[in-house]
Amino acid sequence: MLVLSRKAGETIYIGEDIEIVISEVKGEQVKIGIRAPRNIDIIRGELRQDVSESNTEAVITSLDLFKKL
């Protein structure tokens, strides 16, 4: 993992197409903006975790129903 220090208004580039902009730093909260092509999905980590857990539960439920047949 690369760890960088940035101030408000500064940017970080990932490859040629993705720009991370530090919008605001207030206490322990940092607001960032992300400029990326529309074909790149951007999702918060906690949402990705929730979706993964929901998908796992759905598969388990489906298997349980299938076993009852």
TrEMBL record:
The answer to whether the entry has keyword RNA-binding is yes
Please state the protein's primary subcellular location: cytoplasm
Question: Recorded GO terms, molecular function?
Answer: mRNA 5'-UTR binding
- Keyword Endoplasmic reticulum attached: no
Enumerate the InterPro entries for this protein.
Answer: CsrA (IPR003751), CsrA_sf (IPR036107)
Say which family it is in. Belongs to the CsrA/RsmA family.
Protein's UniProt name: Translational regulator CsrA
Originating species: Psychrobacillus psychrotolerans
